[in-house]
Hints:
- By secondary structure, this protein is of the alpha+beta class.
- Helices cover 33% and strands 26% of the residues.
- It has a single domain, classed as 2-Layer Sandwich (GMP Synthetase, Chain A, domain 3).
- The chain contains 4 helices and 5 strands, in the order αββαββαβα.
Amino acid sequence: MCRTALKTLIGRKWLRRESALNEYEYFLDVLNVLSDLPSQSAVVGIPDETLMSESVVAFVTLAPGATVTAQELQKYCRDRLAIYKCPKRVEFVEQLPKNSTGKIMKRALRDRKGAV
């Protein structure tokens, strides 16, 4: 395998994860659903000891003046996605961490959530 192919494979690991039930959760599907809302979001996998795998967590920044609860966002996702693809938790943040090019730093979100 060439070095660039390996780099691409490792870089795309977050797109899909396998749960204890052998169901695949595609984070891009969740992002596509959340992109319909007036907010900015990031979806990451957080280690979950009860599943012995990862749980999907959505980090959302709301647009000014927008009000929504985590339960409403989860219901919105459940209406549009298979139940196993929906985020287990929704966390509201003031601002998503970004690097100098404007890309969301998902590792910082995973590290921050793992410390909580």
